[in-house]
């Protein structure tokens, strides 16, 4: 029931409900923080021209990277950059799930590195909200809905938000 409520809330709060389906099919732009990066995994993702290619790139990045906090942070930033029900977001949610992380071999991010990456991404969102208080309401609503979905999809997402929730109280008040 929570997932349905999240979808309904996303549609109600979203500033672009008519474009919602189109947005879910568009390729995701690199988060601003990563646009100038020359790291191999960022370049791999940036070379993808469709959402299908992006999903394949993210799978490859996740399964071939070493336990590297930078890679986990990039994937976490991508997670929050994706609209709900986007193919890339769904893939990242699967990869971040306990089941996927627990079945990892020696390659790939650990639960601890993903938790730390989620914390850093949430911190970055809070800073972006503070630095740009005049942003459009649609973006702000999308961010809060995105964080809510993080809570529901994997248990350590709850832990990450629990550690960073104090950063969002000033924006709510």
Write structural notes for this entry.
This protein is an all-alpha fold. It has one domain (2-172). The chain has helices at residues 2-13, 20-25, 40-46, 51-64, 69-81, 87-96, 98-102, 111-131, 137-153, 155-164, 169-172. It is globular, with a radius of gyration of 15 Å. The chain starts with a helix and ends with a helix. The relative contact order is 0.14. The mean pLDDT is 78.
What is the element layout, followed by pairings?
Blueprint: H1 2-13, H2 20-25, H3 40-46, H4 51-64, H5 69-81, H6 87-96, H7 98-102, H8 111-131, H9 137-153, H10 155-164, H11 169-172
Mean pLDDT: 78
State which percent range the strand residues make up. under 5%
Helix and strand succession?
HHHHHHHHHHH
Helix content: 55-70%
Q: Round the Cα radius of gyration to an integer and report it.
A: 15 Å
- Assign the structural class, choosing from mainly alpha, mainly beta, alpha/beta, alpha+beta, or little secondary structure: mainly alpha
Query: What's the number of helices?
Result: 11
Work out the number of β strands: 0
Q: Compute the number of structural domains.
A: 1
Major sheet details: none
Low-confidence stretches: none
